Amino acid sequence: MLKSAQIVSQIQLLIKNGALKAHQKLPSLREQSMQSGFSLMTVLSAYQQLEAQGLIYSKQKSGFYVAGAQVDASSASEALQHTTKIEINSQVFHYLKDTQQQDIIPLCSAFPDHALLFNPRLMSIIAQHAKKRPSYQQNANLPPGNLALRQLIANKYIVQGIATSADDIVITSGALDALNLSLEALTQAGDYILLQQHIFYGAWQASERLGLQVISIPEHPQFGFDLDAFEQALQRYPIKVCWLMLNSHNPIGFTVSDEIKARIGELLQQYQVHLIEDDVYQEMYFGQHKPLSMKFFDQDNDVLHCSSFSKLLGSGTRIGWVHAGRYSEAIQHRQQMRTLSASPLIQNALGDFLSSQHYEKHLRTLRRTLAQNKKQFYQALQRILPNTCEIQYFESGYFLWIKLPESVNADTLYQTLLAENIGISPSSLFNPQHDQSSYFRLNCSFAWSPEIEQACVRIGEMISTLSE
Amino acid sequence: MLKSAQIVSQIQLLIKNGALKAHQKLPSLREQSMQSGFSLMTVLSAYQQLEAQGLIYSKQKSGFYVAGAQVDASSASEALQHTTKIEINSQVFHYLKDTQQQDIIPLCSAFPDHALLFNPRLMSIIAQHAKKRPSYQQNANLPPGNLALRQLIANKYIVQGIATSADDIVITSGALDALNLSLEALTQAGDYILLQQHIFYGAWQASERLGLQVISIPEHPQFGFDLDAFEQALQRYPIKVCWLMLNSHNPIGFTVSDEIKARIGELLQQYQVHLIEDDVYQEMYFGQHKPLSMKFFDQDNDVLHCSSFSKLLGSGTRIGWVHAGRYSEAIQHRQQMRTLSASPLIQNALGDFLSSQHYEKHLRTLRRTLAQNKKQFYQALQRILPNTCEIQYFESGYFLWIKLPESVNADTLYQTLLAENIGISPSSLFNPQHDQSSYFRLNCSFAWSPEIEQACVRIGEMISTLSE
């Protein structure tokens, strides 16, 4: 028996017998080495094996601790992934640079077709404001941002039954700014964050930048969100904050049910964990009612709900917000040091536009068109792509999430299509842990056209070529 | 003789004899304790005394090192200040909130009177662009920003004899964003940064946020910049980056001569130190020629030059830039994770405006008006303020820097005037080390009026009251 294996089995037994309790600190490497007579390296190896088994976890500069309850460890625990060192920024940087070229067919884009977002009425309101002096005043862009706009945003929560005042809202330079400010306000280097296994790469980038340890939970194949894996992660690791996307999920496209959201809210309260909710696609529903945000199920005011107008009115708006509640001042502190709030001109204009009936009309048209275009893409792709591909279709959002045959790597597919000026988004962008299965995300917001059809035919041909 | 004093004099001697050389690592606390037989606390106390004497310096997580050459230590060294823990954010936050009220007389403002910045021609160009689709395109706000605008900014350097291409320029969300991105690209927590003793509070805030150690050098009473203190700081401390303001300095108002700038450039090269130059007031000169930036004296491409249009065309623009040179990609990396570049609409419009003759005309009028208004303020304040005040007047910028009589504290003056809705900026905002002498900054960009005169009279009366 290896020396390290002796330590491993000894600690396994102590945990099983209850001699070592959940969240109890283990002897330090040095102490364990002196007690056992084994070298530091042997003890370290043993601790790392126990960590890989999910029996213990480490905290930066503090040491090793016994993990939480081991119930059901057999099923979900293998699916939980613990990432201490993320490296995704360089990949995302080059992806964005490469797919930013003018002549790319942008099936990779995270935005709806900009032809659908352009609203002449909003543009004319901006033009009117541009000629007025008040839209250009000195203090208009200091945090928390334009009061009238904050009140209008607060009203959108109120009509969903979520008590909100303008003071809860902080205007930001887009949703990415809102998400980053929220994460900075809630975490310190070394803290644990819980992410969905596939999520907007900005979540991984921010975790890398802030030196966080990531626990990721797999998606549920049917319901989108795996409550068992979620609860197990909360039990097992000292999670400080979750960053989740539950409505028109990017990249996959599902919307999580109210029942599951209610349970997520209970678990957040039970484990006293904060949630940063990325809800930039909240308006992209196909049904009668806008899906609820986690703010509706937020019992302790622990949810920071982030969204923006960029996916609705164009990336040129660069206006996002966070429903920050009691964290409003902490977030404004950080804004004041960095970016202030956002263009006062656009804030003023948006205020006027939102209080007209044109905004809701714009959204209704946008949703109807997106639903139609996505269905058309889905039907066409079922015909065009090789039947070794598995197309995941959900009734929300404008993404299709496509599983490739095992022999085809999505990164290779991405690179070869890029050479033909066709953009797709490989799954490694959304999950830097590099799963065995490869997927890609396709933007289906565009009107079907001969050019789009030709691009999709090439995607299909390339998949066939690569799988030979 | 105290035990710690024994260690102190021993190490002093070893440094003097050359047995311990500049930047050589001292024995660790534990080693020194074992060698000397004294306790850890005694050794720590000795090292702290040596650090206070400027003979050694500490590096986070690394240990203690012998400081650089001790020449002329008598004069300037006492003026160098070493700040390891900055706490200014909370003060700045409340200052900005308090002085942001609508009815404040904004003699505290860092911006010129907005009546001078409002340009109807620019506004009508923005209005035209707001109606066009391209200004709202998806990728237009990805780093490094609008190409035409970057080329126009590059041209401004070229006409000053500074070889620059559009690729050197990165567009940011205002100068504050440019400065922060530059500092993040160049430093890690624990690094040494050199600041002027009084400087825009954003420099202190950024240093606090990033956990930097600050070495600050006093201003030269005649020339603005103290070259001796600067060289001594570079000799003595392992400075990684300097953050300086040399043109129309905020808060004091001086502009440093070309001769001094040339020498700063030589020293930066000699000590291989980077410079982040805050040059937001570069256009605020009263003479015939725009003062040179440090990019002109930048031999190794180590200067990151930051500026913006906010002080020229209104804070509503929120467009700044950094001449980033070889750091362009590092800065774009950080932008992509946070704020992207800036409003594509305003970038497009600015491009058109800058390439017309209206921009230079706007600047000429602005400069002429600011020079007139500042002179009028200066003459009136000499009459109005008690003669125990010392008004510092420089031929650039729109600030006056006023030294209070010894018995008057600028923070107290600020608070009492705030209660009467008069805003001034106390010196503690620009130097959190709290000097004995108190100053305040007065914004003199406004046209003299009965309301302004009344406010200045109240400032004078309050100073007299507080000095009784």
Automatic annotation (TrEMBL), chains A, B:
- HTH gntR-type domain residues: 1-69
Keywords, A to Z, come to: Aminotransferase, DNA-binding, Pyridoxal phosphate, Transcription, Transcription regulation, Transferase
| A GO molecular-function annotation | DNA binding
Q: Which domain of life is it from?
A: Bacteria
Keyword DNA-binding included in the entry's annotation: yes
Iron-sulfur in keyword set: no
| Family annotation (InterPro entries) | Aminotransferase_I/II_large, HTH_trans_reg/aminotransferase, PyrdxlP-dep_Trfase, PyrdxlP-dep_Trfase_major, PyrdxlP-dep_Trfase_small, Tscrpt_reg_HTH_GntR, WH-like_DNA-bd_sf, WH_DNA-bd_sf
| PROSITE patterns hit by this protein | HTH_GNTR
**A Pfam family reported for this protein in Swiss-Prot or TrEMBL:** GntR
Sorted alphabetically, which SMART domains does this protein's record hold?
Answer: HTH_GNTR (SM00345)
**What family does this belong to?**
In the C-terminal section; belongs to the class-I pyridoxal-phosphate-dependent aminotransferase family.
This protein is called what? DNA-binding transcriptional regulator, MocR family, contains an aminotransferase domain
